[in-house]
Amino acid sequence: MIATLNRAWRLADTEFLCFLHNDTEMVEPAWLARLLAALAEPAAGLAGLEGIKRLRRNGRYVGRTIVHSFAHGPTVRAPWEEVAVVDSVCMCLPRALMEAVGGFDEGYGFYHGLDRDLSLAVRERGRRCLVVRAPFIHHGGGTRAREFAARPERERRDLAARREALDRFRTKWGHRLPCDVRSRRERVLAWFRPTLALV
Which entry of 118, 160, 161, 168 is 20 to 30 Å from 79 by CA? Predict the structure, then answer.
């Protein structure tokens, strides 16, 4: 899959590249314009519809820092928010930047890890990753769950591939981990939020 994506974007002759999962339905016609507007922001490099603001030292996501633009209840503030990693459900960036980072790292195997890797490659060049408020519906997930239920060995292989991808990511980007793009105020509020909810 990753090798195919690399072949595909190199055939494109556009100024910007946009990778979108085939099971993603965009709700509003202006979605692409919003992504491109975000990329016009100072030092912006990569824009998408879902992402994570904090990565642990081991490279894993901190789930409570996920922001998204799901149509059923987006959590990202308009027009966009900065994140550490843009999820591969949608990734939009300038072609020149994709060329500069050398494209997707095919060492991740089939698919896992390419979004984490590309996001940190963009950040390594001093550019920001942004999640844009552009509502979408993701129809994925059900097929894989049914397939894993019917063939447990496939789930085991998938989990092993995810672990290998995370190990590769940690080895390659350990100098940038942990990574947290939240402001000090956001971090403090997140720390006290569970306590405040109990009061």
Answer: 118
Q: Is the pLDDT of residue 194 over 80?
A: no
**Residues whose CB is less than 8 angstroms from the CB of residue 154 and which lie 6 or more positions away in sequence, other chains included:** 147, 148
What is the reported pLDDT for 144?
Answer: 52
CATH level 2 (architecture), domain 2-187: Alpha-Beta Complex (3.90)
Nearest to 181, CA basis, from 107, 34, 24, 76? 76
Task: Please check the confidence at residue 86 and state whether its pLDDT lies above 60.
Answer: yes
Closest CA relative to residue 55, chosen from 45, 46, 65: 65
Instruction: Tell me the Ramachandran region of residue 133: left when phi exceeds 0, alpha when psi lies from -120 to 50, beta otherwise.
Output: beta
Rounded CA separation 48/27 (Å): 15
Q: Is the peptide bond before 152 cis (omega within 30 degrees of 0)?
A: no
CA angle 28-114-176, nearest 5°? Answer: 110
Q: Are 69 and 49 in contact (CB under 8 A)?
A: yes
pLDDT in tens, 91-138: 999 999 999 999 999 999 877 899 999 999 999 999 999 999 999 999
Under 8 Å between Cβ of 86 and 51: yes
What is the helix (H) or strand (E) element at residue 20, kind and residue range? strand 16-20
* Domain boundaries, given as residue ranges, for the chain: 2-187
